[in-house]
Amino acid sequence: MVFSSNVFLFIFLPLVVIGYYLIPQRFRVLRNMWLLLLSMAFLAIGSVYSMSIMAASIVLNYVSGLLIGRYENKPKLKKLFLAINLCLNLGLLFYFKYATFAMTLAYSVLRIEKEALQIALPIGISFFLFQGLSYVIDLYRGEVAVQKNPFNVALYIALFPQLIAGPIVRYSHVEYEIMHRKESLDDFYEGLQRFIVGLGKKMLLANPLAIVVAKAFDNAHYLGTDSAWFGLLAYGLQIYFDFSGYSDMAIGLGRMFGFHFNENFNFPYISRSLSEFWKRWHISLSTWFRDYLYIPLGGNRRGNEYVNLLIVFTATGLWHGASLRFLLWGLWHGAFLMLEHYLRKRRKMQGKAQGRPGVWGFIYTNFIVLVSWLPFRAETFGVMMEYGKRMIGLKPEFIRFSLGYYLNNYTGFILLMALLIALRIPQMLFEKVLQPQGLVRSYIKPLSLLFVFALCIVYLVNGSFNPFIYFQF
Question: How far apart are CA 61 and CA 82, in angstroms?
Fold first, then answer.
């Protein structure tokens, strides 16, 4: 089940909200049980298989937490139980996500003519396993208290707004709210508005752009240079509005039930360096790898920080999928981040001021990011190479799809709106021109969101639908 569906909007969500608020606020445990029950049902409707794997993950992390908490004063036993938990969690991730890829690669290298075992990938496994890991690691570090109630651990991991595609929520961020949150009408209203913003990003921007992207990548042999770059630009905008739209909906839903999740996107395409981009893009994942991999490896303090960066972005690439394409994507970002780190370090050693990059930094960053989307989107290396040739001008004799094929009035309008919103231009105009007069909150914003929601419903009724890109991870 996805948020941008009739079943979710008109059956599941009303059922959850009505049932939740019919339970008096003083019965917090019952409200939590209701959320947990419906969260398990949310995943089971899509895949009972995925729900069973998640349930096993919950039991594993709950028991690991109890053991680490019990032996708080015995460091060796604590470390042993942490190591066992890491091995089991990462073992689950490897088996379900990477075993088929590893076997295929091994058979290819060894020239063994045998088909690798096909293992179904549970929905959202990369997200709920990382959440479980963060609970156990933070508990080991003494940053959170052991949770002895298994249903609270289950609710933290299974809570449906962030279950399938994030953001990755830390236990420390919701530890208090699980049992002591106080819902309010203001929170519900803000959450509803945030949900509609995310729904609009998905239905009105990401989905139309997906059609353009599919035309480009499905017909790579027939693209001109202009249309190839246009298709890749459309994908860069599609994946941003698709994933940030889901994050907006997840954050909004959490807010409706009294949970305050951290932001996951902060206008990444206005960045002026790749380092800044990764502070704005998929923030929950980048901070997860920073806190649980980069810093433990030594970060900038000891050892070789360049090697640490490369390890982190190799892991980041592979986290997205068991494919050499994703590995290439991660290494591409890692290599340019290493270069930026080296240049900053060299500039500091020379005593030069560390000024904020200007327009050239903006152009450089978006060029690097845009090119990186090619291996991310191409389904095979063959498509990636063919598409890359079109981008650099190695054209076929007959170009079927030129830029004019894409730029009809509707496509051009969607692309223009997506670019303006991604670069935060409408938001800045609202803040500077309308916000001081109090018009945005009182009239313009509510009416605009009502209009957006109505348009989304029209699209849903007409059958306009695309699954969220990050569901595959």
Answer: 10
For 269, other C-beta atoms within 10 Å of its C-beta total 20
The angle subtended at Cα 390 by Cα 386 and Cα 395, nearest 5°, is 105
Q: For residues 166 and 45, what is the distance between their CA atoms, to the nearest angstrom?
A: 18
- To the nearest 10°, the Cα dihedral for 354, 355, 359, 361? 10
Contact 374, 384 (CB under 8 A): yes
CB 195 within 8 A of CB 9: no
Provide the residue-wise pLDDT of the chain in tens; the chain has 473 residues: 788 888 899 999 999 999 999 999 889 999 999 999 999 999 998 889 999 999 999 999 999 999 999 998 888 999 999 999 999 999 999 999 888 888 888 877 777 777 767 888 888 888 999 999 999 999 999 999 999 999 999 999 999 998 887 799 999 999 999 999 999 999 999 999 999 999 999 999 999 999 889 888 888 888 888 888 989 999 999 999 999 999 999 999 999 999 999 999 999 999 999 999 999 999 999 999 999 999 898 877 766 888 889 999 999 999 988 888 999 999 999 999 999 888 888 777 766 656 667 889 999 999 999 999 999 999 888 889 989 988 888 766 556 656 665 666 677 888 889 999 999 998 887 777 666 555 555 677 788 889 999 999 888 877 655 666 655 55
258 to 29, 166, 188: CA distances (angstroms)? 14, 17, 8
Q: Please choose, from the candidates 323, 452, 463, 226, the residue with its C-alpha nearest in 3D space to the C-alpha of residue 234.
A: 226
How many helices, marked H, and strands, marked E, lie in the chain?
25, 0
Q: Which amino acid is at 285?
A: L
Q: What is the pTM for the complete model shown?
A: 0.91
Residue owning tokens 């299974």: 158
Peptide bond into 296 cis (omega under 30): no
List, by residue number, the catalytic residues. 320
For the four alpha carbons of 86, 88, 93 and 99, in that order, the dihedral sign comes to positive
In whole angstroms, what is the distance from residue 418 CA to residue 230 CA? 13
3-state DSSP percent of the chain in helix, strand and coil, to 5: 75, 0, 25
